[in-house]
Amino acid sequence: MFINTKKQRKKFGNISKFAAAKKHRRGRNKMSGKGNISNQSTENAFAILEYIIGQPEPLKLTDIAKSLDMNASTVSRYITALHACGYVEQDAKTGRYKATTKICELANRFMSHFDVARLAHPFVQEISDYYGETCCFSVERDNQVFYIDIVVSSSRTLMNVQRIGNSAPLHSTAAGKLFLTNYSPAQLEALMERDPLVRFTDTTIVTADALLREIDRIRADGYSTDDGENEPGIKCIAYPIFNANGKVVASISITGPSFRLSKEITLEKQRHLADTARAMSVKLQRLGNFNI
Which domains are assigned to the chain? Predict the structure, then answer.
């Protein structure tokens, strides 16, 4: 549901689906006329770049063309442009292509514009230190959870999928379910019709009735949990951050192994996370009726 991982799976995990998507774009542009040729070119260039970024090793041009169901000469033309712009580089010995760090540089510039992340960081750092766990500050972007600040505790070892700038599903994450409390039943139904609930683990919520019950529980409890719903064995506890109108516009959460959080995090200890979320709401509301 509403998920970046689903898109990535289509692009990188199943080449036949990626090729089908490309054929769909090709057909759409033929129907739309010559005015969309530049749009098709842009889509193809980004498709190539995203594919290269998604692969762990440098790639031969012919492999890229085959994987994306494109003509080799076409791929060569786009890669030449990407190379000229600094997004792709070629190994002089092997002739293989890989992405440069320019995307990271752009991401860092983009993230530097998030004043809210800088305001939130002291809270995120303090929560991570207090609990000895990873702490995340996130917002909703395009029906996904978007991480804009993360502090990994130095006292714990935990492999996380969370990275600043990454996105995650709404229906299977604690933070995401907080954002879903903003939606009316009709809005939720529309979202689920457009993006069906995807199962990631045995405990992922995959029915509309179960999701609605979960959202009602979150509204009543004032916080959200994800116990292995997005990643097996990983638990997350999230509290909402509100704007002046009472809308959930951000979330602060702690993440760790299920056994550790279940044993060490009690409601009494969670009170500190709740108090911190309230303090963040007050501080961020001083920016005005913000909508991050």
Answer: 4-105 (1.10.10.10), 114-285 (3.30.450.40)
